[in-house]
Amino acid sequence: MGMNDSMMKPGLTRQLAFLLEVDKLKNVIRRNFNADDSRRENTAEHSWQIVLFAQIAFEHADHREQLDLLHIIRMLSIHDLVEIYAGDTFLFDEQANQGKYERELAAAKKIFGLLPAEQAAEYLDYWLEYETAETANAVFANAVDRILPFILNSHTQGKSWTEAGVTKTQVQDKLAIIEQASQPLWQLFNHLLDRSLEKGLLIDL
């Protein structure tokens, strides 16, 4: 016999509603292109890839003994869910980034509010920790999130950069947090930055 909604635990019913709602993340299209330049990625794909990359790159984290990889993964797995309601905001679009935090905070309260109250509060705390980037775990999570689209752009035709006229200075400013998280990743960033400039993917300003 199947289980109808009235037979399910209330908490599980809310978690199921949350799961079905976050499926919409697959429909949020980002500015970044896939590594083969065939199409733009969606945010669910980006979320999967940063969670994977955090695990791969964790050995390169500075002060790794102070970090909690599971905590980092949990932050990365949920922080972009706000884009279901707030949309994807391109990192280098200064105008679009005005009011971004307020829009996304409202979206976070809405999406996590579908969950049972204790879980909703826990997920909102993860989201806020990521956004404020004041803990070592959040700094590393932010670094992973920032460098991955940069890696993809530097290994392709950099379409999301070239179509927006992104400059070297903008990239350096927006990705500076990597230096706080991992010296190897920071070295990788600078190497790929030089290569991107040589390829003409960024404006040298």
TrEMBL record:
The keyword Metal-binding applies. Keywords: Hydrolase, Metal-binding. It comes from the Bacteria. Residues 22-183 form the HD domain. The keyword Zinc-finger does not apply. InterPro entries: HD_domain (IPR006674), YfbR/HDDC2 (IPR039356). Pfam families: HD_3. Coiled coil: none annotated. This is HD domain-containing protein. It comes from Zobellella aerophila. The lineage of its organism: Bacteria, Pseudomonadati, Pseudomonadota, Gammaproteobacteria, Aeromonadales.
